[in-house]
Design brief:
By secondary structure, the chain is of the alpha/beta class. Helices cover 24% and strands 33% of the residues. It has a single domain, classed as Class I glutamine amidotransferase (GATase) domain (Rossmann fold). A hairpin with a 2-residue loop joins strand 10 and strand 11. The longest helix is centred in the last third of the chain and has 12 residues. The relative contact order is 0.19. The mean pLDDT is 95. The structure holds glutamine.
Length: 193
């Protein structure tokens, strides 16, 4: 069984742990740089990207995490996690900067107040069977994509992108009750050993 780390600074990490374990992985909460050692993959959960980044800087995790993901560690990022990975962040707090590893530009809370949270069926490239229930909660709007593959769109905007071993989602698969994306990630992480 692969060992998947779940960044546990803040946010929806417990739900990812449950989904990953159901999908056949062992998990470890990641709170320090030492926790990165020996992982087969990592999940960057939803929450508040500003708080998450600030806490990572404080405990000295931001740079080691950038090295690990940049070095090819399989990564699944959801919502705030997608923001943390993005190269450009609009409507961030002050000069909010994250890992800058994914060639996309996102606008925080870009779907606006009226549609603060919504659910939409998503057609995900390469996924068989029915559509995936996309749960969006104050989701980032992807405004530009560069060197990434868009694997799902909603309303003409990318909501799932991939680059190498990184998958970033604007929605919350851990809250959808559908394990297909977690299973796929666990498979990818198993292959990386
Ligand atoms: N709006 C949050 C942020 O900017 C993301 C919301 C979420 O992860 N559900 O970090």
């Amino acid at each position: 069984m692969p060992l998947i780390g779940v960044l546990a600074m803040q946010g929806a990490f417990a739900e990812h742990v449950r989904a990953l374990e159901k999908a056949g992985a062992r998990t470890r909460l990641v709170r320090t740089r030492e926790d990165l050692e020996g992982l087969d993959g990592i999940v960057l959960p939803g929450g508040e990207s500003t708080t998450m980044t600030m806490l990572m800087e404080r405990v000295g995790l931001l740079e080691p995490l950038r090295d690990a993901i940049g070095g090819g560690l399989p990564t699944l990022a959801t919502c705030a996690g997608m923001i943390v990975l993005a190269r450009e962040i609009a409507d961030g707090m002050g000069d909010q900067r994250g890992l800058g590893l994914l060639d996309i530009a996102v606008r925080r809370n870009g779907y606006g107040r009226q549609v603060d949270s919504f659910e939409a069926p998503l057609q995900i490239a390469g996924m068989d069977g029915k559509t995936f229930p996309g749960v969006f909660i104050r989701a980032p709007l992807v405004e530009r994509t560069g060197d990434v593959e868009v694997v799902a769109e909603h309303d003409g905007h990318p909501v799932a992108v991939r680059h190498g071993r990184i998958t970033a989602l604007g929605f919350h698969p851990e809250l959808s009750g559908d394990l297909r994306l977690h299973r796929e990630f666990v498979r990818l992480a198993s292959g990386s050993r």
